[in-house]
Structure formats: structure tokens, C-alpha cells
Specification:
60s Ribosomal Protein L30, Chain: A; Probable chemoreceptor glutamine deamidase CheD; 2 helices; 18% helix; single chain; alpha+beta; CheD-like_sf; protein-glutamine glutaminase activity; 5-stranded mixed β-sheet; hydrolase; chemotaxis; 162 residues; 10 strands
């Protein structure tokens, strides 16, 4: 049986169950946050662009921000049958794509996204069991709902599994 591939765009999220595969392209400073229930095979993926919805006026898209996207993703996986106490998370992305002359933290979007995602997951008591974050290169990920496995693809750096 062919797996259904579901694309998750930038500032977007989606869930699947069973044989579905969630994929998102071009995670640079963005962070891909996954939630997975290994018993029900429910998987969710959010492509987060920014750490906090509170710092921006145009915050109408909750999937864009770590603080709102992860909560929304949790609600969506629970609707499809996941049990909160069994959920685990994996993270990918959060790169520093450009070098800046000043060392201003405001420009470290990737690092700030990763820190924000970890903080929210900790508050929700969802353990992070694997991550592939940081560096200065983009990633494309595929999350397989039948196993919870994530394939991380990077240009010039090959493919790995987390």
C-alpha cells in the first residue's frame, strides 16, 4: 500500500495516522516540531517560523509561532486519537542561515525558534526524544506515521534518520 504524502507548508501544520507521511521542505531558521503517539500511530508536524506570537502585530496565523503552533498541533493530534501521556516529540531545523556582523540575538531566529519550541514542549510535559537542529544549512524532513521515524535530508550532507 502506498503511503499518502501530506505536504506541510511554511507556517502550517497537519496531522495523519497509520500509513501517512508528513513532509516539509526548506527548514532553515524555521523549526519542524513533531508529535507522535506510538500506539495509535498518530503523527503531527508543525513548520514554525517565529518563536512568539506576542512580539508581532500580524499574528493571525497560529501555525507561524512556536507558542501557538505547538498547542494547536497538540489539539489536532488529540482529535485524531493520540493520547497526551504517550506523545513524544522530535525537532529539526533552527539553523543560522546567514552570518551577521553584529552578534545581536534578535537575528538568531533559528536558535530562538528551537529554544521556544523546547520551552513549550517542556511546559506541556511532552518529551523530546530526538533532534537535528542548529548548524547553517537547511533541511527537508519526512515523518512516517507508521513508525514515528523522521528522515532528515540536507543538500550536500546526505540523509539521516532520527
Amino acid at each position: 500500500m502506498m503511503s499518502q504524502i501530506i505536504k506541510v507548508g511554511m507556517a502550517d501544520l497537519n496531522v495523519t495516522k497509520g500509513e501517512g507521511v508528513l513532509t516539509t521542505l526548506g527548514l532553515g531558521s524555521c523549526v519542524g516540531v513533531t508529535l507522535y503517539d506510538p500506539i495509535t500511530k498518530v503523527a503531527g508536524l508543525a513548520h514554525i517560523m517565529l518563536p512568539s506570537s506576542k512580539a508581532i502585530r500580524n499574528n493571525t496565523n497560529p501555525a507561524k509561532f512556536a507558542d501557538t503552533a505547538i498547542v494547536l498541533l497538540l489539539e489536532e493530534v488529540l482529535k485524531v486519537g493520540a493520547i497526551k501521556g504517550r506523545l513524544v516529540s522530535k525537532l529539526a531545523g533552527g539553523a543560522q542561515m546567514f552570518a551577521f556582523a553584529n552578534k545581536n540575538d534578535i537575528m538568531k531566529i533559528g536558535e530562538r525558534n528551537t529554544i521556544a519550541a523546547k520551552k513549550i514542549l517542556k511546559e506541556l510535559k511532552i518529551p523530546i526524544i530526538a533532534e537535528d537542529t542548529g548548524g547553517n544549512f537547511g533541511r527537508t524532513i519526512e515523518l512516517y506515521a507508521n513508525s514515528g521515524m523522521i528522515i532528515v535530508k540536507t543538500i550536500g550532507r546526505g540523509t539521516k534518520q532520527i
